[in-house]
Amino acid sequence: MEESNQKEKDILYSLTEATNIALNLEDLFRRIHAIFKENYSTENFYVALYDERIPQIKFPYFSDRFDRPPEPMKPGKGLTEYIIKTGKTLLLTKESIDRLSESGELELHGTHPTSWLGVPLRSSEKVIGMFAVQSYSGEQPIGEEQKQTFELVARLIAMAIIRIEWEESLKINEYKYRRILNDSLVGIYIIQEGKLKFCNWKFAKIFGFQSPEQALETPVRDMVAAESREKVRYELQLRESGQKMSSHYEFKALRQDGTLFDVEVLGSRIDYLGESAVQGTIVDITERKRMRDSLKESETKFRNLVDQSPLAIEILDMSGNLVSANKAWETLWGLNKEEAIENYNIFSDPLIRHSQLLPYMEKIFRGETVLFPVVKFQPNGSNNQDFYIRTHYYPIKDGNGITQHIVVLHEDITKMKRAEDAIKDIVAGGYSRGGKEFFQTMVKQLAKTLNADYTFIGELNKADHDYVTSLAFFSLGKLCKNFKYNLKGTPCQNVMGKKMCSFTSGISEQFPDDRMLKKLGVDGYVGVPLFDSHAKPIGIIVAMFRKPLVDIGFAESVLQIFATRTAGEIERMQLDKRREKLEEQLRQAQKMEALGTLAGGIAHDFNNILSAIYGYTELTLAALNQDSKEYSNLQQVIAASDRAREMVQQILTFSRKREKGQKPILLGNIIKEVLKLLEPILPSAIELQTEIKESGLPVMADQTEIHQVLMNMCTNAVHAMQEDGGILKITLKKIPHPPVPVGSLPRSAAGYLQLAIEDTGTGIPHEIQHRIFDPYFTTKEKGQGTGLGLSVVHGIVQAHKGHIQVESELGLGTKFKIFFPVLKGEKLPDRLLEEPVQGQHEWILFVDDEKPLTQLANQMFPQIGYNVVTCNSGQEALDIFKRNPYRFKLVISDEIMPKLTGLQLAKKLKEIRNDIPVLLCTGYDKKPPDAMAELGIDGYIQKPISSNELSRAIDTILHKDENTASKT
Known about the structure:
alpha+beta
C-alpha cells in the first residue's frame, strides 16, 4: 500500500514539474502523455479545449492507435461533450459504453474503446475542457482508485493551460506594442529635464541615427538648429511644468550629417519614473512646408493669371451674388468690380432676363449639366453694336462633393460669329464637294467673302519645301491656270511653318524680290499656313488685295476658318493617293505570289520528270563502254538535264521557294566583288559612286544569288544611261524601320540593311512601274532582253525575306531600294561530303506516286549498295511497314502524294516506330532544321536526284550519330 502511495506521489511530482517547465501547450500535453504512458500504459490520450463564445471544441493534442485527430466541432452528444457539459469525471467500461451507445444517450465517434476515462479541466469552477485516456485491449489500465489522482492532475493541467495562455497573450501584446512603436509613421519620444529618455526607430531615422540607442546618447540640443534652440527649450519647459500652451509647434531641426529640415512636434506632460516629463510625436514636414509655400506661390500666380486672362471670369455664390471678378469682366460688361460685389446678382441682371437665360441659370445652380447657347447682347452704353458671348459654367465643390460656388467664363466671340455668318453660303456651296471642285469653290467663296482681288490655295512640295503648287487660283473674278510658286523672298516664306502672316498695306515694298506681287499690284496680304493632323505643314491659303485692308481682324478670322477645312481636304487627298499606292503595291504582291505559286507547282512536276530522265540515263551509262558513241550521246542527255535542272532552280527562285545556300554573309563584301567586275566594263560617260555603311552587319543570303541581283540591277542601270551617260550610285546602310507595308518584312529582325542602286538615266514611266517585275515584261528592243531579269531579282529578294521598291521619274532616273533583315548570332551550315558512299545492303522502303521513279529506284538502289522495297502510295507503304517495322533502316518518301502526303506518312510511321529515319524527296527545296524536327523528318533531298547525291544523303542519315561523334 505504501509503495502504491509513493508511486502516486512520484507521478504527481513528475506532472507538477512538467506543468512548470512546459514552454507551450503542445510541449505541456506531450510531457503529460509521456508520464501517463510510462506509469499507466495509456498509449491513447487526447485533450479537448472548449470555447464557449463560438461555441466550439478543439483538440490541440490527440494521440490514438486507430483514429485521426478530429476537426474542430460544435458540441454534440459525444463522451467529450458530456464531460465538458457535466463537469464530472467519468470512468466507463466496454459494457457501459455499449449500453450508452445503444440507448442513444451518447453518440460515439471513431473506434469504440474497451475502457475510457474522461476528466474535466476547470478554471474558477468553469469547465474549459477535458482530457481522456482510453484502451482498446481487454486490460483495464485505470481503475476507480486512480480517478482521484487524475482529477488532481486535471487541476494542474488547467492551471498550466491558463498560465501558458496568459504568458503567450502577454508576449503577443508586448510584441504588438513594440511593433506599434517601431512601425509608427511618426517619431515618438520622451524628454525629461532636457534629456532624451526614450525614442522609437522612426525618431532615430528622422534625425539620421543608426538606432534609437545612438539617439539616446545625443543631447537634445544637438538635434535642434541654432536658430530654434531657444524656442524648443521654452516649449519643453512650458509642457514639463504643465502650463497651458498650443497643442503643437514647428522648428528647424538638425540631422546627424548637418542638414537642416523642418519638423512639427506635438507634446504633453506625463509622469515618467515618478518625475515630470514630456511625451510626444515628431514629424518631418520639410516636403509639406515646401508644398505649402509652393501652393501659396501657385495661388498668387493663379490670381495674376485670372486677372490677366482675356476671358471675363466671375465667381458667384449659390444665391447668384458676385464674389469675385477679373479686369476682363469689368471691361466686357462696363462695371466696377468693387461696386458689383456689393450690389450685383446674376438672377437680377436685366441682360440675363431679356436674353431668356434664367431657365438655364436655374438648372446650373441645381447642379445639372447644361449646354449654354451663344447669346447676342445689346449693351446699354454708347456703343450700340451687338456682341456675341459664349459662356461656360463650372461648379466649385468641397471635399464632400457639395457645390459651394459657380465659376463663370465669358468668351467674346463676336469676330468669329461675324465670320461664320459671312461664310454661311460656303457650307452649301463648297464643303460637300471634294478634290479640284472643292478648292475652286473655296477660292471663289473666299474672294467673295473678303472682297479680295486674288485668292489661292497651294500644296507644299514634298521633295522641296521652298515650292508650293497651287491647287486653285482665283484672279480678278475668274479661275486661272495653276502655277508653281517659289517661296523664297516672298511673304509666303514667312507663313510656312509659322503663324498667320498679314499686312494691311505696302507689302510689295517690303518684299521687292516677289515679282508676282509687283505684277499683280498687291498692297494688302493675309496668309495662313495649313497643317495636317500631325501638325506638319502641308500648304498655304492666301488672300491678296490691291487696296489697303480695312478690317484685318475680320480677314484673319475668315481665313482661319477656311484654312481648317482646306487643310483637312488636302490631307484627305494625300491620304487617298497614299492608299491608292499601297493598294497597287498589294495587288502587285498578290499577283507575284500567284505567279510564284504557279511556277512552284510547275517546277515540282518538272522535277519528277527530270528525276526519271536523270536516273535512267545514269543507269544506262553505267552499263555502256565509255568509248562508245551511245555513251557520248547519253552524256549529252545528262548535260541537257543539268541545264533543265538549272532552269528549274530559276523557276523555284522566282516562286520564292528556294533557300538553298543561304548563310550569314556581309553584303559589303559582295558589293566590292561586283564593283571589281563592273569598273573595267563601264562606259567612260558613266560615273560610279559607292557609299557602304553596313558596319559588319550580317544577313542570311545566298552569295551567288546576291551577286546575280547586283549584276542584273547594275546592268539595267547602265543600259538606261547608255546614250547620255550619267551617275550609277550604289549605297548600303542600316535603317531601323523600312518604309514598306506591314507584314512585308519579319518583325524579329535586329534592324534592316537598305541596298540602293540608283541611276540618272531615262527613268520608267509611271503607268508601267507596277508591271516591271512580271515575267517576260521588258521595255528593251527585241533581242536585247528576255524580260526575266527583274522577275528573278524579285524572286531572289522574296526568298531572302526581303522587300524591293522602285522610285522613278521620266528623265530623272530610277532608284531601286532592297531591304534585308539583319541577323544576330547565326552560324554557317555544315557542308555535306562530296564523295559518293556505298551502302552495306541495308533495306530501304521507297515510296513515290510516279511509277517511273519507283521502277528507277529498283535499279538504282542496288547499284549504290542498298536493298529496296518500292510502292506507289503512302497507304501501301504504311501497310508494308506495319507488317515488319524493324526490317527497314530508312524510309524515303515523295513529299507531294495524293491522299497520304509524305509528311503525313512520316508522322504515322513514327507512331509505329519512333526511331525510324525518314528522308523526304521534294520538288521544292530544304526546310529549316527546326521545322524538320517538328514534322518528324530527318532529312530532305532536292529532285531531280543523282545517284551520288542519293548515296550521300542516305549515308548522312544512317550514320548521323557517328558523324556527330567525329565532329565532337
